[in-house]
Amino acid sequence: MSVMKRNIIITGAGGFIGPLLATRLLNDPGYRVILTDLTDPIIPAGIKYPTHAFTFKGDICDPAFVSSLLAFAAPVHAIFIFHGIMSAGSEADWDLSLRVNVNSTRDLLLALKERHIGVRVIYSSSQAVYGRPLPRGKVTDNVMPTPEGTYGAHKLMTEVFINDMHRKGFINAFILRFPTVSVRPGRPTNAASSFLSGMIREPMHGEACVVPLRDRSFRSFLCSPNTLQENLIKVLKMDRFKLPEHIRHINMPGISVSIQELMDALAKYGGEDKLRFVKEQTIPELERILRTWAPEIDTTTALRLGLIQDESADSLVKQYIDSLES
């Protein structure tokens, strides 16, 4: 007996999070996954249902490409919007960030409204929507976003648009404000937070990584790839009425971790000798961005919704190092 497959689009699928999610979906016979990006996305290896995966190369900023993508994927069950220009890249090129992070997402959502009204939309936002003045202690759901960078500002603009489209019934949306994902495999990105993976990943491969500030007490809000993967699946299946119709964001679970705690975990699980590859060097333009981000977020709502959370810096680092041995 054949299983009716639900069509899932993942934009920005050439990055890290798209294949991470696709791996999970393509081990389930119930999904057909369409991976799209500017370059040909790679279908994850070792999946149970590789014939359920399709790659669709093109420019998400091009209306003709969007039209062909949505036609190919019809009927669309859900779309994960992961494409975008990262934090440092957005700050360096405001016009590019506007084109990719705002305009292309708006046009994609409007196309969905016309062709697939009511479709489940899961949008990757960021904790970069928050800026100073930050409260003492945790940032709660009631703290007003005041982004101090282009990336956070453009994410917030899109959040408002999605909230209203959901309220009007055009889409069925959840907005996920991601923590920094650490430890990511692969190569460095143009995100200001890239070093938070690099300071573990690169030393484990005998390569140097620059930490762009000289402050080992500096804290960041992090989650592991495995935790994010599990939470994305949970949100895909989540009842829309778990959140108010005009407030669709979830501060995704993470933990507050210092640079020193990451270095201690690297030494513990990777070996003391790996610390010599961690180079601390002030890079003012990156430090300015990093200092505007909230070091700790209240995840009461996310945990109430059934999402999961990592335990410690040790667990983040051990998960990555264990993956190198598997």
Helix fraction, binned, reads 25-40%
Q: Stretches where pLDDT falls below 50 for ≥5 residues? A: none
Please compute the radius of gyration using only Cα atoms.
Answer: 19 Å
SS strand fraction? 15-25%
- Global mean pLDDT: 95
Shape: globular
The DSSP helix count reads: 11
Q: Order of helices and strands, N to C?
A: EHEEHEHHEHEEHEEHEEHEHHH
**Pairing-aware structural class of the strands and helices?**
alpha/beta
Largest sheet: 7 strands, parallel
Number of separate strands: 12
Give the strand line-up of the largest sheet. Answer: 3-2-1-4-5-6-10
Please report the distance between the alpha carbons of the first and last residues: 35 Å
Write the layout of secondary structure elements.
Layout: E1 6-11, H1 17-25, E2 31-37, E3 53-57, H2 63-72, E4 76-81, H3 87-92, H4 94-115, E5 119-126, H5 150-167, E6 171-178, E7 180-181, H6 195-204, E8 209-211, E9 219-223, H7 225-236, E10 249-251, E11 255-258, H8 259-270, E12 278-280, H9 284-290, H10 300-304, H11 313-325
Parallel strand pairs: 1-2, 1-4, 2-3, 4-5, 5-6, 6-10, 7-9, 8-12
Antiparallel strand pairs: 9-11
Helix pairs in contact: 1-7, 2-4, 4-5, 6-8, 8-11
